[in-house]
Automatic annotation (TrEMBL):
Keywords: Golgi apparatus, Membrane, Protein transport, Transport
Main location as per UniProt: Golgi
Localisation per UniProt entry: Golgi apparatus membrane
Bilayer-crossing regions: none
Entry keyword Repeat: no
Ranges annotated as biased composition (Acidic residues): 208-227
Bias-annotated ranges (Low complexity): 9-18, 36-45
InterPro entries documented for this protein: COG2, COG_su2_N
Region (Disordered) location: 1-63, 199-230
Family named by the database record: Belongs to the COG2 family.
This protein's name: Conserved oligomeric Golgi complex subunit 2
GO biological process: Golgi organization; intra-Golgi vesicle-mediated transport; protein transport
Amino acid sequence: MSKFYLPDSTATTATPSPLTSPPSPKSNPLDRKSYSSHNYSTYSDSDSDADNTPLPFPAALPRSDFLTPNFTPEAYLSTLSNRHQTLEDLRSDLRQRSQLLSKELLDLVNANYEEFLSLGLRLKGGEEKIEEVRVGVLGFSREVGNVRDAVAEKVQEVGTLLEEKKRIRKDVMVGRRLLEIEERLEDLEARLMVEPANSLSANNTSANDDDSDSDSDEDEDYEDGDGDSATSATLARLRKHAQAYLLLTHLTQKLHHHPFITAQQSRLLRIRNTLLLDLRTSLKQAQTAGVGGKQLLNFLVIYRELGEGEEGAGALKGV
């Protein structure tokens, strides 16, 4: 069985050349001493021998320096600045080391040649294993794609459900607001004794007569009692009714486009007219009872809160 051999050109090693001695330093003209004509000095033989003595050859580069992690030639050469060696000698050293490594690699291959061949034989039939792995990876990627599609579908479904939940919550809030408006309408109609439109019958005249009778009864009660106390009670009642009406208008403004609010505009109008009528009647009764001007001004305050300041001034003047 054949073995590998390096060519003769790569097996030769270069012998490092000895270091050349550095040139002797030149004397500084400023350091020269003045010599007389009869006193001359020369260099001694010992100084000449010391200048010609060659420097010691540096130690070989350790192999461990080349095994450091993240080895870079530039960084390694920068660490050799203190190495007393010429560039040619360094090249020869590195070339010799490269040839030595090539020889070691060749010896390793020759020593394990049979194992290398058997390794190639053992690798035969690996295509089936590779195909099995490839099929498994493809199946896994397909399953991952299916899971990703399912997750995207669930995300879209959850987003749709959240939007529907927001819409339902908004509808619930609107429904609660409408129920509150209906309850306040019924309560204010009961206080003002205003019948809803759906409960009106053909006996509207009799109902109006009953209302007028009740109003006349209240007027008689106010006339029988003390004028100032009756007027104060009437003002408190009218102010409470006016505040309830203003709260109703505030609630309906937020939902003025809703069909239910549009249908209740007639009820709100009847409540407003009834409230203004009661306010005008109570003002006339107060004037008849001869109450003070401060209480009369309180009637005008209620008129102004309802946005009917001019009508209140006309009622006060008896217009």
